[in-house]
Amino acid sequence: MAAVPVVFNEVLNLQQLGVPETSIKHGLTSMQSDKWIVAVEPTQVTLVDLQNGAQVTRRPIQAEAAIMNPSSSILALRSGTTLQVFDLDKKAKLKSFTMPEALVYWKWTSSTNLALITGTAVYHWGLAGASDPVKMFDRHQSVGPNCQIINYHVSPDQKWCLLGGISAAAGGGVAGNMQLYSIEKKVSQPLQGHAGAFASIKLLGREDPAQVLVFHEKKAESAPGEPPKLYVMEIGRDPSKGAPFRLAPTNIPVPADAAADFPVSLINDSKNDVSYLLTKMGYLYMFDIHTGKTLYRARITQETVFCTCNQESTGAAFGITVRTGKILRIMLNPQSLVPYIMSTLRDNDLAIKIASRLGLPGAENLYAAEFERLIAAGQVVEAARLVASSGTVLRTPATIARFQQIPAQPGSPQPVFQYFSTLLESGKLN
Fold it and tell me: What residues does 48 pair with on adjacent strands?
């Protein structure tokens, strides 16, 4: 049996570090990046420095909520409608502002921008200068005041926003709604689903990267038992460069015992182009962004994992369990991914595509078989692209000899020249 393609483990326990259970249970703990965890307690704020062996610092600060900047020691505090931003290294207050209405959700969307969400609107507060928060857009009626906001994202090009929340569904259950907003066009598109996030991926045969939105869809009018779907669609591409990338929606395989379950977060691994979907019941789903296919599913905890973030250097996702305060890390297991796809999913085409894209082992025999199939079908360019994507598996003198043996078609260059030119498009000759 192939090893599982995802590694998930507990890397820290907040209760063992002295963080009170009440600070974990009541949403007073935040993790905006892999650098810091911040917990608000009645008379102090506890800072856990993840870059320095989980060193704990307690500061006598009274606040209702606190979140640390994802890349620097800058702490944002909230008490009522008053917001303050401090530089801990310089021991200086950078900014302060009193909001016109109460905040229901806030998040650093980057190292320079703090998103502030009220019952009616979304604001952005730039860290630079003395500027006040700027209203970006009003909340759509589908994510109105009765909707609990659980996530917010800004696209890599800073031109799109995604606001997501949950509410009680008619007839029971939990409904999910999202609002996709274009900053340039000032237009909103409502989406029915519980979680989504942006990613930038490199597509085969395309020079420009594709900025995609990956999201879960579960429509209120879905028939009983109808599975939710995963969508992957490119947004913001210049029409002059061609049609945007878009996949047909794929079914998400929800197990029978989780019919009432729903996602609480979606995190994109920008290093490996996979998505992790985490649910209230503690299920983990892993998807391939390029095909939308489900790569793996398992229940990794009996608790809800909240306050998730990603680690760009490794592609890992982190999250905090809602009751016990365990810090979980979820990572791709690259050595096992391709063998798992071949033996468990039995999808050789997907195995070749992922092995080629990520340069992973395990598909050597598949490369050879696919190469022979393409040569037999006269698909010279496709065969050359396969060789180029195989790393060193097929780049041998025997492969060159195969292309030399193929007769040229009238009006076309010699197949061996097509082979070399294809290799040069993706790198150098060995």
Answer: 37, 56
